[in-house]
């Protein structure tokens, strides 16, 4: 039976030296990365000990590192989330933000029938019952059916009926037809703007 030839060390010393240089460089970078990770953990631990919310800090840091495109994309996602919450009755008493309202506003050819001023705001009731909330939600639905825009909400910002009105308007405004409403969709990129892949990761914050 023939013996297997013994493996010989590589004689190309320049290739070995290059390989060693590459490995040493990668190891050094890995060590630096671990050191930076340890420093970040130390800072986070100090912040937590002082009473800061670490999850909120991480989110702020992530936002601070965004470029203009990423920031615009995040803002649009936040607006769509608000629209979804309103349509599902999940605003929990928090009215829609102004950006989400603008997104939902209808820009049609109807003539203005007012004097340029917004709807008269109703005073906040001293005691607001569950019946009041339900009535405000129904008012929002009726307003949508009447062709009013979401910015016609008559309740003030601190009135919990404002969120209920928003929910009713959004529910009614997005309940007809089989197509996904435009406000539910991410805007289409311009022709000269590269399209982004959809991020379907449900576990990301």
TrEMBL record:
Residues 17-89 form the GapR-like DNA-binding domain. Residues 99-109, 190-199 have a biased composition (Basic and acidic residues). InterPro entries: GapR-like_DNA-bd. Residues 97-127, 152-205 are annotated as: Disordered. GO terms for molecular function: DNA binding. This is GapR-like DNA-binding domain-containing protein. It holds the Pfam family GapR_DNA-bd.
